[in-house]
Structures are given as structure tokens and as C-alpha cells.
Amino acid sequence: MKHEIPVIVMEPVKGGTLANLRSDVGDILHEANPGTSFASWAIRYSASLDGIITVLSGMSDTDQLDDNVSYMERFQPLDSGERTVIEKAVEALKSVELIGCTACKYCVNDCPQNIGIPSIFELVNEFRVYRDLAYAKRRYGNTMKESGKASDCIACGSCESHCPQKLEIIRLLNEAALQLE
Ligand code: SF4
Ligand code: SF4
Q1: Cα–Cα distance between 128 and 24 in angstroms, integer?
Q2: In which domain, by residue range, is 136 found?
Q3: Which residue among 38, 61, 94 closes a domain?
């Protein structure tokens, strides 16, 4: 640890998304240790890092509390085999094709519908990785309070002419509306 500063980790399960993994990713963890929850991998990973003094995991029911206590009461850091399992799971997560939006926002200013294009693409990407539809819809609903939503697009094409990544924004917004609204 370079600066010898103690670290407190928040959101080790990434708002719950790492507790509900896509089946191809979840199978990697399940095969390695069928008796443990997905959340336990995320929390133990955080707690195993150098300099961590606390891992703050939000819990919404007593089952989650019991699960957390079951492996944190007598905490064991991840061993090398478990680290390899996590690396495989991470590779599987990264293999998903994502929308190549860089959030430059060049598309946003001239949109007559004030659509939050980069925010929508960020949420679509998150959904592609974690496949947690309820979570994605909730986040989408909250994010869209400040801007137009994907289905508000009138296909004027202004955004596409500004996008340095040459993204098919209209088509992608259409997909986002079908998935998340
Ligand atoms: S095509 Fe849709 S998202 Fe793009 S600028 Fe026009 S209304 Fe906005
Ligand atoms: S211009 Fe293209 S890359 Fe930039 S924020 Fe808009 S969609 Fe994303």
C-alpha cells in the first residue's frame, strides 16, 4: 500500500448487481464453490485487498445478513485458486459486446428532445453485462427524470451527425426503449 492510508470499501456488491450474475458468469463461481453466494465472492474480494479496514455491504433482509456473517465472522482472504476463479468470471463479464459510447456528449446539445443519450447507453451496457432487468429499469426510471427518454426520439438524425464514434444512435435508442421502458 503506497500511502499507508486505511481504506473503507462501499458498495462491494455494486448495488446488488454482482449478487445476480448472468448464468454463464454465475456458473463459473458456482462450479468452483456451489455452497457460497455470488455476493460472498464480491465481498471477500474487497476484504482481501491491501489496506482495507472495513467493507460496508448494504443488506435488505436477514438472509443477506446471515449470508454475510457466515463468511465474514471468521474471515479468510481469497486464496490463489479463488483469485483465478474470479479472473475467469471477470473475463466472461468483459466478453459482452458493449455500445462504444465514450460519453463525450457531443450528441446531446442539439437533440430537440433533450434525450440523455450517453446515460442511456451506459445503462444499456450495464444491463448487457449484468442482465439484472429490474435494477436496470429502476436506474433508467431515475436517470430519465432529468431528460428525455429513449422512446422520445423523433429520429431527426442530428445526434448521429455529431457522434465521433459513428454510433447508430437512433437504432440503439430504439433497442433501449424496448428493453428498459
Ligand atoms: S435522432 Fe433522436 S436522439 Fe438523435 S438528436 Fe434527434 S431526437 Fe435526439
Ligand atoms: S456523441 Fe457518440 S460517443 Fe459521444 S456521447 Fe454521444 S453517442 Fe456517445
Answers
A1: 13
A2: 117-180
A3: 94
Cell readout for 137 is: 429499469
- Whether 112 maps to a domain, the answer reads no
In a domain, 85, yes or no: yes
Indicate if ligand 2 lies below 6 Å from the C-beta of 96.
Answer: no
Amino acid (1-letter code) at residue 148: G
Sequence-ordered list of residues with C-beta below 8 angstroms from that of 33, at least 6 positions apart, any chain: 82, 85
Evaluate: CB of 117 within 6 angstroms of ligand 2.
Answer: yes
Residue nearest to atom 7 of ligand 1 (CA): 153
Same domain flag for 145 and 81 = no
The rounded mean pLDDT for the chain is: 92
Does residue 170 belong to any structural domain of this protein? yes
Residue 72: per-residue pLDDT: 94
What's the pLDDT tens digit per position in 70-121?
A: 999 999 999 999 999 999 999 998 888 889 888 999 999 999 999 999 999 9
